[in-house]
Each structure stands twice: as structure tokens, then as C-alpha cells.
Write a structure and sequence with these properties.
The complex is a heterodimer.
Chain A: H1 7-10, H2 12-16, H3 21-63, H4 66-71, H5 86-118, H6 121-136, H7 139-155, H8 166-190, H9 194-202, H10 207-218, H11 220-236, H12 239-244, H13 262-271, H14 279-309
Helix pairs in contact in A: 3-14, 5-8, 5-11, 6-8, 7-8, 8-11, 9-10, 11-14, 13-14
Chain B: H1 23-59, H2 65-69, H3 82-113, H4 118-131, H5 135-149, H6 151-154, H7 159-183, H8 187-195, H9 200-229, H10 232-237, H11 261-269, H12 274-309
Helix pairs in contact in B: 1-12, 3-7, 3-9, 3-11, 4-7, 5-7, 7-9, 8-9, 9-12, 11-12
Classes of the chains: A mainly alpha, B mainly alpha.
Amino acid sequence: MKSHPSPLARSQDAQMWQPKRNLSKWSEQLVKYIFAAFALISVATTLGIVFTLIFETFEFFREVPIFRFLTETQWTPLFTNAKFGIWVLVSATFMTSVIALFVALPVGLLAAICLSEYASPRVRQWLKPTLEILAGVPTVVYGYFALLFITPILQTFIPGLKTFNGLSAGLVMGIAILPFVASLSEDAIYAVPQSLRQGSYALGTTKRETITGVVLPAALSGIVASFVLAVARAVGETMIVTIAAGSNPTLTFDPRVPVQTMTAFIVQVSLGDTPATSLAFKTIFAVGMMLFLMTFVLNIFSFWFVRRFQEKYE
Amino acid sequence: MSSSPYSGSELPDIANSDFQPNLSKRYALDQVFEQLTWIATFIGLLVLCLLLYDIISDGASRLSWQFISSFPSRRPATAGLLSALVGSIWLLCVTAVLAFPVGVGSGIFLEEFAPDNFFTQLIEINIGNLAAVPSIIYGLLGLQVFARLMRPITGGPSILTGGLTLALLILPIIIVATREALRAVPNSLRQGGFAVGATRWQVVRDLILPQAIPGVLTGTILALSRAIGETAPLITIGALTFIAFLPPLSLEGLQTDFTALPIQVYNWVSRPQPAFHTNAAAGIIVLMLVLLLMNTTAVLLRNKFQKGRM
């Protein structure tokens, strides 16, 4: 190399070219650290949520023994004779979520199969964004729809259905989370390679048999992930249940009467003028902790399941 | 090979085997199944149409300039949503200013700069986790950290507090959208940049970002439209439902109390008088129009982006 010096090094132009490498390196490092700090904000958010909830929940349990929290059968934290049976709120959340999932999971999965396997590319191109509009409708709008449209219709053929009830809130919540299930499951089903379908057809199966026997099992991890997300959405849904299911904390699984979910309780307390030092104020953090733990467990399950059952294709 | 049942020219004896193709029944089931999937798809569309019809038929008659330019009132006929609309626009701006640089920066860091180590994986798992946390939990975080601990800066449940809370809420969405947009840029472009001696940041800034920016903007607008429709976290941080003034157009404006469109709608829905329900429907129409405007922008950007790449 020494015997052939680069022609550039001898030319006049080479002297003109000043790469300013130090400045480039310096700005590179600066940008890298700033962006890394930005990325850490998301970690800080998680820590902030966890510490906020733990701190206030701890304060709450210093005044209310955890035994009472888990065993009492009434929820009246704002009364003088306060009772703190969290299962009253959990049962309401459970009931509305189960109703919602009975709508969202089967309908969402069938819609995903339709979009991916039966709809022509042109129809799919139109249908998928239209379904995604449903996902973009604010939940307060669904609450209005449940209370003032669905409930009056249901009341005409379900006797004893109250103005506020778990049934109508659950049904509308199912419609609200349906597009998440449909869209995410569709992604998973669409991603199954064509060769698997062709192999199945070669064995003489019909289209339905190919879908239920080959395509759906191959897309299982994605479908289950979408289902788990739907459960998390249903549990954390706030405005639909606050508007349409009422604010009556009752330990019941009767979908016709008013109930109060965990999220609806947090909204109820937040709207009132509760002093920050009062017990009622700490209660919403204890309820929030319960909610966070439920979604956290769901997330971990989903993460584990996807890792365990994910199919990798070339 | 001698164990094969089909040796030589001998064909399997279908007529006497247990195998029953039973095709007519299977095809009939196929038909039923296909119809079921179509019905499932149209349930969603049907509900969407019903919802839009219900809201427009309830609220369209109430829409007027008076409705948009009046403050809330105890009498439904004179009430309006001026303070809510202005509050939502303030929130939109504050949230965008906070969330866009942080979200895009995080996305660039994770996709272009970060080494593939335990620390990076932790951030990635964490972002996935945050996306599934209910929005009301963010409200509790905002209440404790922004509205109470940082009260001297934010001024309690103010526009700044609301903007900070919503920014944290949509951060995971922007990060994921940014990463997807960056991943769609072909690697040859990066290699070309490095080959002419550019640093990683120069490659990202001058070659990758210009290609990815439509995708990034689409994701950001969709995330912001989610923020505009959020009610629960704003109620939780203590946003008021009755505001009869507009925040001053200055830095102090950030520290004033506020209300927003979804909160105003919720307030009207939760009252017993039917006249307020009409107001709620009209408020929903305004809210949906704002969202429609934002989503149309996002879709137009995406279409332009996809055509440009072909």
C-alpha cells in the first residue's frame, strides 16, 4: 500500500475536504444519549405507576386490614359505617367482562377468518379499515349508545331490566373491543404461509377443514395474544360501564340490575370533592392496584404463551 | 418397500375401506361456516351504522353556532361546549408537543442505536406491557405525580397535567409506530450511507427519517386521536366538568383548570334530563368530526406514503 499512495492524498481537493470527525462523533454521542433518556421515560412510567400504587395502597392497608378488604361482602367506603369488600367491585367487573368477551371473542375471531380467508383482497381492503373505525370511537360514545339506545331496546323484551344494568354495558363493551380481536387475529391468520394451506388441500380437505385444522392452530399464539388483550381491555374499560352499568356496588351476578365495577368506582370518587388525605382517596389507589395486578398477570400470561407456542416460518 | 399397501398397479380399495369422503355434507358445513364469518363481519358494520344513525338523529338538530360558541350552563337550551372544545385543542397541542419528540426519539434509539442486550429487551417488554395498562391507571399516576407532587409546576389538575398524562398514555403507540416505519426502510439505504462515511446519526437524520416520516406522522396522528377521545384518565386527575372561561393564550394558560369534549359529553349523559342527552349527542357529533378530520389526515398520509414506495 505504501508504494501506491492514494491519488486523492496528493490532490489539491483533498486539502479542502475537512471531515470534522470530532464534531460528528460528538453529536452522535449526544443524540444517542438524549434518545436513550427518552426511551427510559417509558421505564420511568412503569416505575411511577408501580410506586404510586404501592405507596397509596400501603397507606390504605394501614387503616383497613387486608383481611377486611378480602372477606367483607359489602362495599361502602364513602359511608360512615364503611365496608371494604373488594369482591363486590371485582364481581361486577367480572360479570360485565364475561358478557363482553362472549360477544367479542367469537365474533372477532370469525370476522378475522372472514377478512383473511374468504374476503377478496379488494373487499378486505375496505372492510378492515371500516372495522378499525369501531376501535377509534371514544368509549364515552359507546356509553351513550349503551344507555340511550341498547338499554331501551333490551327493555322491550327483557322484563325487569333496570335503566342501569350490566347486560347492556357488557354487550356494547363487547362491540367496542371486537375490532381489536378481529384486527390482531387477522394479522396472525394472514401471516400463516400459503404452503401450509396448499399442503392441507393436497390431503383432500375442504376450505373450512383447512382453516380449523391447520390455519388456526398455526396462528394460535397470535390469536391467544389478541384474546388476552381483549380481556385486559374489558377489565380496564371505564366509561361504558360507568355510564351504562350504574354506580350501585352490589354483590350479584344478575345482569339486569345496576352494579359498580372497579373502574366506575374510581370515576365516582374522582368526580366528588374528596380531600387528598381522606381514606376514600386512598381507596381508589387500592382499587387501582387490584386492577393493575389483574392486567399485569394477563400480560405475563400472554408473553409466556406467545414465547411458548409461537410458530416460526421461513 | 414391500410393506407399502399400494405395491405395483394395485389401487386402494376405496369402496370397502373405512374412509368416507362424505363430500356433500362437508361442503354444506363449509357453506354454513363461510356464512357465519360473513355475518360476524357485518355485525360490526351494522352496529357502527346504528351508532352513527342514533347519534346523528338525536343530536343533529341541536348543532348550531350558538352551541359551539357558548359556555356550559344549567339550562340545556343555552348550554354549549366552547370551553370543552378549546380545552380539547389545548390538550391536543400540549400532548403532541410532549409525546412526539419523546416517542420518535425512543423509537429511533430502540431501532437504530440500541445494542441488542438485556437492557434493551427490558425496555421492549416494558413498552408492550404499558400498551395494555388500562387508561384509568395512567389517570391515577397523573393524579399522584403531576397533579399533587408537581403541583408548584403544573398548578394542580391543569392543562399541563392533562397533557403530561395523555402523553405518557400514547407514548407506547408512537414508539411502536416509529419502529415499524423505520423497519420498513430498506437496509441497503443504511449501508449506502455508511459506505460514504456518514455516522449513524447522519444516516438516520438524512436518509432514514425522510423515508420513514409519513409512517411516523400517521402513527402519531392516530395516537393523538386516541388521546382526544380519552375520558377516564382526565376525570381521574381531577379535570372539572363546569368551566366558564377560556385559558389565556400564554404560559399561564398551561396551569389553568380545564374541561374537554369527552368530559363534557359524559357530564351531559349522566344527567337525568333528556334535553341534556340531546346536548350530549350534539357534543358527540362535534367530537367525532374532530376525530374524523384527524383520521382522514392520517389515512391520506398513509396512502401517499404507500404509493410513493411502489
